[in-house]
């Protein structure tokens, strides 16, 4: 049972990360900074519960706000660059964040033990859940409630004008500007929102694994974050969810019995999917199961 | 209403627009013509703020807009269509209009309501604009699935949705057959009836000569003639610019 809870948790974090990248991709920004925001959320909320003894809900919220503040700051220089240059710049941001936490030592004595981030040793004993009597299924449910709320919020966004505006900017910036849209507001808002989602995901991750270090926040994770919405398709939020289940659930967990061959098949399957469904997994007919995924009519 | 005063634009030493001045009065349809590379599209882009002018200034209703970003120029009443159609192809027809739809200033519902609300009034406006543009039966189709002529009409509809005073049409008849040109001519006259001012950049003389009140002719970024369609057709400089030679 623990094993399945673990997989569910993992799919939860990755879905949140993927959705944060999805929001940016709608505006045409391919951002590798999501893992940086994820790390900021993880460390910030961990420090709040461990060192300051703050309640988990408040800590997650404040962690997400701090992450979104950094995303807001990243949003402005990101306006001026596009495509591969943006990828490189955001990779640089994520590396700066990772190296900052690699060097961050902030140890405080609590009940005779030293707690807090300890540089390369990582940040151990983020034990809010255990200390407050949360069972594993409480934690999984909590993570998935957050995932569903974020999924719903982004789904709802496509029902109001803001969603169309985001997509318009992603499709054609000049046409969007010429229709009266302020690109700065739209792109920086998307970056800030993406940072918020990644920040919550980071906080949940830190508390459910109870341990983070700089190795948890490598560029590989940033690559996964953008791969989900690209593989899933941008037609709606569910594409990202399917892509996470496909990669984390089926390819990584489901093919474990193949041993080292898994990695070969992993790449092959992704190439196949992208060739057969270039606009994303969401376009596979079996996924057109509900009115939820239909486009909104006038 | 549109006053262009001594504007200039260089691209790496090439004078794309050189000391150009002209006015467009309220309610007028003005044609901007000239051979290929004469600076017509550059002039449109300067008016819209796609890039800034190097010299001179542009004003609308006596408000200097030369240094405003594109979206603020839209708010001050300028909208446009593009030479190569630029719709939001993965959005539906009505969403293309929604994106550009400007609220009436007397509607004080605020940006929260506009961006995140679900207003009946907005939907009615969108319908009205699409019916006016002859797209009444295509509300829910993807813009990318429309025919070429319909895409042109949708682009025009989107330009109307931002409540402009002045519409800039950049070669709207490109690639159209003569029936479609006739339809376009009627639509441009309809814009005039709505009280809009139109600046039309066009190569298709069949359209220009039959719809405009006045013509400005460019060659090598300079204005070489200005006047009524009849005068322009008989102007020696214009004939020389188009036909070349002595």
Q: Please, could you describe this protein's structure?
A:
The complex is a heterodimer of chains A (298) and B (246). Chain A is an all-alpha fold and 298 residues long. Chain A has twelve helices and two strands. In chain A, a hairpin with a 2-residue loop joins strand 1 and strand 2 (113-115). Chain B has two domains: 2-77 and 164-243, 3-Layer(aba) Sandwich (Rossmann fold); 83-148, no CATH class. Chain B has ten helices and ten strands. Chain B has helices at residues 40-48, 70-75, 93-100, 110-116, 120-132, 148-161, 178-193, 205-211, 229-233, 236-243; strands spanning 2-11, 14-24, 29-33, 55-60, 63-64, 78-80, 166-170, 197-201, 214-219, 222-227. Chain B has a six-stranded mixed beta sheet with strand order 6-7-8-3-9-10, with helices on both faces. In chain B, strands 2-1-4-5 form a four-stranded antiparallel beta sheet, with helices on one face. In chain B, helix 7 (178-193) runs parallel beside helix 8. The model of chain B has no long low-confidence stretch (mean pLDDT 92). Chains A and B meet through helix 7 and helix 8 of A and helix 2, helix 3, helix 4 and helix 5 of B.
């Amino acid at each position: 049972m623990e094993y399945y809870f673990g997989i569910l948790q993992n799919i939860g974090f990755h879905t949140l990360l993927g959705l944060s990248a999805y929001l940016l991709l709608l505006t045409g920004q391919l951002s590798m900074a999501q893992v940086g925001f994820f790390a900021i959320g993880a460390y910030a909320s961990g420090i709040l519960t461990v060192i300051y003894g703050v309640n988990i809900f408040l800590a997650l919220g404040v962690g997400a706000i701090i992450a979104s503040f950094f995303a807001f700051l990243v949003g402005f220089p990101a306006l001026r660059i596009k495509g591969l240059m943006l990828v490189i710049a955001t990779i640089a941001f994520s590396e700066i964040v990772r190296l900052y936490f690699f060097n961050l030592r902030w140890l405080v004595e609590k009940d005779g033990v030293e707690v807090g981030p300890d540089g390369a040793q990582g940040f151990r004993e983020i034990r809010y859940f255990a200390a407050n009597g949360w069972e594993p299924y409480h934690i999984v449910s909590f993570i998935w409630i957050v995932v569903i709320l974020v999924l719903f919020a982004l789904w709802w966004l496509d029902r109001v004008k803001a969603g169309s505006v985001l997509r318009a900017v992603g499709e054609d910036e000049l046409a969007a500007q010429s229709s009266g849209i302020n690109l700065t507001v739209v792109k920086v808002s998307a970056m800030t929102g993406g940072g918020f989602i990644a920040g919550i995901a980071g906080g949940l991750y830190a508390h459910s694994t109870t341990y983070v270090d700089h190795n948890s926040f490598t560029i590989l994770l940033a690559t996964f974050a953008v791969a989900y919405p690209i593989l899933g398709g941008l037609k709606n939020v569910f594409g990202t969810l399917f892509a996470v289940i496909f990669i984390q659930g089926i390819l990584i967990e489901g093919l474990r019995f193949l041993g080292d061959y898994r990695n070969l098949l992993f790449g092959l399957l992704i190439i196949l999917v992208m060739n057969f469904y270039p606009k994303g997994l969401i376009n596979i007919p079996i996924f057109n199961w509900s009115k939820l995924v239909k486009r909104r009519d006038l | 209403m549109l006053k262009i005063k001594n504007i200039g634009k260089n691209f790496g030493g090439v004078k794309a627009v050189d000391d150009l001045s002209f006015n467009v009065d309220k309610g007028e349809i003005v044609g901007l013509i000239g051979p290929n590379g004469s600076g017509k599209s550059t002039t449109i882009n300067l008016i819209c703020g796609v890039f800034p002018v190097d010299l001179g200034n542009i004003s609308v209703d006596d408000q200097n807009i030369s240094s405003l970003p594109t979206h603020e120029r839209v708010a001050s009443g300028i909208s446009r269509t593009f030479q190569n159609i630029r719709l939001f192809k993965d959005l539906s027809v009505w969403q293309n209009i929604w994106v550009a739809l400007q609220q009436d200033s007397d509607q004080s519902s605020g940006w929260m309501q506009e961006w995140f609300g679900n207003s009946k009034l907005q939907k009615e406006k969108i319908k009205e604009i699409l019916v006016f543009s002859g797209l009444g039966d295509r509300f829910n189709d993807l813009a990318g699935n429309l025919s070429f002529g319909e895409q042109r009409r949708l682009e025009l509809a989107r330009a109307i949705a931002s409540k402009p005073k002045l519409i800039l049409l950049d070669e709207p008849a490109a690639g159209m057959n003569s029936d479609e040109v006739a339809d376009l001519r009627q639509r441009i006259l309809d814009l005039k009836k709505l009280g809009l001012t139109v600046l039309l950049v066009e190569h298709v003389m069949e359209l220009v000569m039959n719809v405009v009140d006045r013509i400005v002719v460019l060659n090598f970024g300079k204005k070489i003639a200005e006047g009524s369609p009849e005068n322009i057709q008989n102007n020696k400089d214009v004939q020389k610019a188009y036909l070349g030679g002595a």
